[in-house]
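Lecture notes, unit on protein representations.

Consider one protein chain, 412 amino acids long.
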Amino acid sequence: MLKPIKTALLGATLFTAAFAGAAHAETKLNALFMAQAAYSEADVRAMTEAFTKANPDVTVNLEFVPYEGLHDKTVLAQGSGGGYDVVLFDVIWPAEYAANNVLVDVSDRITPDMKDGVLPGAWTTVEYEGKRYGLPWILDTKYLFYNKEILEKAGITNPPKTWDELAEQAKTIKEKGILDTPISWSWSQAEAVICDYTTLVSAYKGEFLKDGKPAFQTDGGLDALNYMVDSYKSGLTNPNSKEFLEEDVRRVFQNGEAAFALNWTYMYNMANDPKDSKVAGKVGVVPAPGVEGKSEVSAVNGSMGLGITTTSKHPDEAWKYIEFMTSQATQNAYAKLSLPIWTSSYEDPAVAEGQEDMIAAAKVALAAMYPRPTTPKYQELSTALQLAIQEALLGQATPEDALNTAAENSGL
């Protein structure tokens, strides 16, 4: 009788061990993020650690690349049969990603609480042709930052309300010998310059596309580039702006070498940090200006979303991770770096504390966000425009000729 009992016990032990192994089997997710602006690498790691603590059966392997590599890394991984479960994507990519089956349509995963709680404008970050391809995560636009002390020294009482007024104030600062080049922009031949250009296109009420064809080479699109070229040639703009990305602009502003700078939300608290900034306590922020008779303010939609790739073998766990990263609790905890996507967060005193000016500017600017062109051929169009802007700034072509060439090379 002993033998069968021993066999039974051994079988039970093996079953228990196998069950325990299955219960503790970990799902491993690979996630691709951006190594700059908004949330830092350390912040994303801290958020992820909180997620894995609450979900011990899931581990998340994080990879960070500069913004410039984010799109290509996502597409290349997709072509090689996978690699990432969760990817960060820019507002300009859903059209292309949808057309090429890169991201999962998650429309049926969006809960009523999400639909009602997230700012209406934030949803445009992840939408294409009525479908949603993720959840908005970094809600952002570019604001006009100004150095209060420099304006005060120049006898300027209020920051500019129009782009022409900004040029006038910069001229006053230059003529009084306070700063030689008062304005800094992100005009490197990269996506950064398209964001600055779009801000101005929105101010001049321009259009990128009309009936699917380029329309930026006339009217507001041409006015916007003319303004950029005039500002550059006038000597009011830092000449290095043509090579600057956003981080360069932040460093220049934090060193007290710019009276005005166009940049994303993240610069506000970094420039106000006395450990790293020479202008802490002197940072002013308002929505980017408008154009008299055309607009009150201007703003570009620079938001980003988190989505599940179509090659992910763990879409449910990937979605759970995205829900956690975009949740109101997580976003409110990191609101000093990137403003939340949730409407009610803006009435939370803890979110506003210490950044009341930023919140006031955001309430206006986020409602005015203007999209970059929505097209599956966005990358081609953006590349053509980047080159056109650079040529116009360097005087290699007139703004009109440069934009006409960009329209011809846009692939549209």
